[in-house]
Design brief:
The chain contains three helices and eight strands, in the order ααβββββαβββ. By secondary structure, it is mainly beta. The protein has a four-stranded mixed β-sheet with strand order 1-6-5-4, with no helix packed on it. β4 and β5 form a beta hairpin. It holds the Pfam family HSP20. Belongs to the small heat shock protein (HSP20) family. This is SHSP domain-containing protein. Keywords: Stress response.
């Protein structure tokens, strides 16, 4: 979670926390990795599909909004970083009535190596990665670089 404090969505999280009444100056706290604990964070489950032309990731994020989710590709490391926050819906008064909690809510971060560690040497086209949030599932499509066919020529032996 150390990368979260520098993540582009970190300021959004800070703004939301301040709107919710949390003032880091008054409390002497800062919004950074040290503020994230197991109770308020989670690692979302992911399915990775490897088709002929792309990797497709399905990340379970029920209740997430697209403006609260970020996807970043680190080409040097071959790492896809998914980070954001999932809120429990309802106003403060309603949330006080929660009697059983089973859903994962809070800050999340997941870093995934592509291609997955299965020995494949496929390259990823980082410029054409797409992501959409559909029915509580973040769908990330990561195109593979098309392999060029090499022409084999017969060489006559003299």
């Amino acid at each position: 979670m150390a990368a979260l404090s520098t993540h582009p969505l970190a300021q959004t999280f800070r703004n939301y926390a301040e709107q919710a009444g949390w003032n880091p100056q008054q409390s002497g706290e800062a919004f950074g990795p040290e503020d994230i604990d197991a109770e308020n964070s989670f690692i979302p489950p992911v399915d990775i599909f490897s088709t002929e032309k792309q990797f497709v990731l399905h990340v379970a994020l029920p209740g997430a909004k697209k403006e609260d989710v970020g996807v970043n590709w680190d080409e040097e490391k071959g790492m896809l970083n998914l980070a954001g926050v999932v809120y429990r819906q309802g106003d403060e008064e309603f949330l006080k009535t929660l009697s059983q909690s089973e859903r994962k809510v809070g800050v999340f971060e997941r870093t995934i190596k592509l291609p997955p560690g299965n020995g494949e040497k496929e390259e990823v086209d980082g410029d054409n990665i797409t992501a959409k949030l559909e029915n509580g599932v973040l769908i990330v499509s990561v195109p593979k670089v098309e392999k060029e066919w090499t022409e084999v020529k017969k060489v006559d032996v003299e």
